[in-house]
Amino acid sequence: MKRFLSAVLAGMMTLSLMAGCSSGGDQTTTTSTDSDNQSTAEGLFPAVPKEELKVGVVHITNPAEGTGYTYTHDLGIQGMQKALGLDDSQIIRKNDVDDTDATAILTALEECVEEGCQVVFATSWGYMDYVEQVAEEYPEVLFAHGTGNKSNGSNFINYFGKINQARYLSGIAAGMKTASNKIGYVAAQDSQNGEVTSGIDAFAMGVESVNPDAKVYVKVTGSWFDPEGEGQAAKALIDLGCDVIAQHCDTANPATEAEKAGVYAVGYNSDMSEKAPGATLTSVMWDWSVFYTKAVEDVINGTWTGENYFGSMQDGLVTLAPLSDLCAEGTAEKVKEVQDKIMNGEWDIFDGETEYEDNQGQTHTLKAEEYGTCNWYYKNVELA
């Protein structure tokens, strides 16, 4: 069935194959016939009429959890669906796809193709190599992989953004709140994963900017989704004396453990004050609808260029949840001061020029777009 459908789709989209197999190929000029928007644009693939469109999404967990990574991505899909007026039947979700299970990942991706999806979003880092494989097998289908560092300039792109901007701001809130000068950070992966490591560094730099005496203690779970391990890591950091717990992991467990222990938390992905209102200072968040709406519009309008996407606070992809009343006095003013500089382009973290010292005494520069190469911890970071 898979092979048959691939052949049918290939025959229907010959122009796609001619342009899509190489990022240097000729572009196809297409005209959108959407009743709300008519425009001529250039792209690598033919336009897909909105009423014929199907969008596939592969999730590592289930959006029904109501918080965290998958929930936030699904909110973005819902926002895109509403903005573009798509029916529920046009969204094909594959939930609870373990990103360490090659068979499950390949099956989910191929099922999306077999069910007629012209574009497929794969949201977990661990899907990356398999998306690359399936994108090569189905050059007429568009694939976008969340995070990661692989793409082919045609039907396989990656998407991420300057989450480090919000990480830095949340570090200000943590640095001003801590009384012990020990701040914990539950990390999904170790220093070899640049996404996690650059986030830790940005957070630690924000802490240092308002509290040079504070240290950030990192506990690694070794998994993108490990509810039990995330809770245990938070407990260990609290036992170490950390009175603020930050996180780069999927669930709200670090925040809820902080609330149980009477300390404070900085959430990630969604607003963790919904799960731990007595602990959450703020949360580092994404509005994925910004990207999903743009990407699907490109499919509908025939303006898909094969370029990777890297958004920011300026375009609304990256956000910071409102500061809670638990924050220290003066936090809102300090956060606003730095955020205003980011928003007007006066300052940004990881500009490729500023030198930062790591915890081994070495110096580094980093461009925000090259976050994946970051394998060093900032000078006030220690492994717990």
Note the main attributes of this structure.
about 375 residues, alpha/beta, 7-stranded mixed β-sheet, 6-stranded parallel β-sheet, 11 helices, 17 strands, about 35% helix, about 20% strand, disordered N terminus
Give me the oligomer status. single chain
One letter per element, helices H and strands E, the order comes to HHEEEHEHEHEEHEHEHEHEEHEEHEEE
Q: How widely separated are the two ends?
A: 51 Å
Counted beta strands = 17
Largest sheet geometry: 7 strands, mixed
Q: What sort of overall outline do the alpha carbons produce when their principal axes are compared?
A: globular
Helix content: 25-40%
Number of helices, where a helix is a run of at least 4 consecutive DSSP H or I residues: 11
Task: Classify the secondary structure makeup into a structural class.
Answer: alpha/beta
Which radius of gyration do the C-alpha atoms yield? 21 Å
Beta content comes to 15-25%
Would you identify the regions where 5 or more consecutive residues have pLDDT less than 50?
A: 1-41
Order of strands, widest sheet = 14-12-11-10-8-9-17
Mean pLDDT: 90
